[in-house]
Amino acid sequence: MRTERNLTRLDRVFARLDREPERPAHIDVPKMSRHRVVLFTATLAFYLAIVWAVVITSWLVRLDWQVMFFRPYQQWAGIHWFVDYYVVLGQRGPTAVMVAAWLGWRSWRQHTLRPLLTLGASLLLLNITVGAAKLGMGRLGPHYATVIGSNEMGLGGDIFPSGHTANAVVTWGILAYLASTPRARRWLSAASAVTSLGVGMSTVYLGTHWLSDVLLGWAAGLLILLALPWCEPFIARAETWLFDLRDRLRDRRGRPLPAPVPVPVPLKPRTAPAGDTPAPEREPVASGRQPRAPIHLAPGPHTARSERTPVTPVGSRRPPHSDRLPRGTATPAARPLTGG
């Protein structure tokens, strides 16, 4: 009795990879629902509240100074090596390359540019919003603080909000945003939240950011992820334009330009002059001769046999006959017989 082997999870993964690339029949594009609008509004309010608390030098600024004086990198010096490596998960360059490689493979498998275009749109929004906030508020970091207890705002710094934290939220959160199933979206959302939380705490541990920088960086990254559905129409237009451009370039390189086809000029029937009777049209007369079979000749110039002149071979004893005529001509009259 033949039994079928149960496929393991790894077998199913390899079977999925062996399939030919195909565009999915339906791509689930998140839309700006009411729930998402509420979350966006709440996150924006939290963002503004953090900025206001730092500007007025509230209890949040005092907490920042207390954490800095605690010096976590000295309290837990044994994990310093691990934190130095872990904080790379929030750097723009390495994370963008890793995520772009994965999303590029997905784009090739699904015949769509949406994953890569969505990543590009999110990173563009991140650079514009976080970069503008950094330069606008100009806060100095803990290692460059000048006055104890001050908020260090407007002094030419660029650490508020935390770029590492915001980048971790956006880069790893985009994987959850582009997930194809609800279950994968939930798991990836939890993983990206834990990763970005660890990156933010790593910067506080190393003393490169205030605690309030990290809080504002989380809010800044979450705002970008929540606002991505508003960018979906522009992403769809960009994808259509790029595919049209690819098709035009492929047609231009692959096929030569066709030669111009002359347009036939319609000829008007010839009209007889006024008063003349048009001649009747001749009917085709069938020929009574039978068609001849094709004559197959050897290569080279040929002449009809009747046109050939008899030639006496060189060295022959037989004298040439001048009275011989070529075949096909009239036979001369017979000579009279003479006695003798």
Q: What report would you give on this structure?
A:
This protein is mainly alpha-helical and 340 residues long. Helix content is 52%, strand content 0%. Helix 7 packs antiparallel against helix 8. The radius of gyration is 47 Å and the shape is elongated.
Give unreliable regions as ranges. Answer: none
Oligomer: single chain
Q: Helical element count?
A: 11
- Structural class, by secondary structure, is mainly alpha
- Proportion of residues in extended strands: under 5%
Q: Mean of residue pLDDT?
A: 79
Question: How would the global form be characterised?
Answer: elongated
Indicate the radius of gyration in whole angstroms: 47 Å
Q: What pattern of helices and strands is seen along the backbone?
A: HHHHHHHHHHH
What's the end-to-end separation, in Å?
118 Å
Helical amount among residues, as a percent range? 40-55%
Secondary-structure map with pairings?
Elements: H1 9-17, H2 34-55, H3 59-70, H4 72-75, H5 80-86, H6 92-110, H7 114-137, H8 163-177, H9 182-206, H10 211-227, H11 232-254
List keywords for this structure.
single chain, 340 residues, mainly alpha, 11 helices
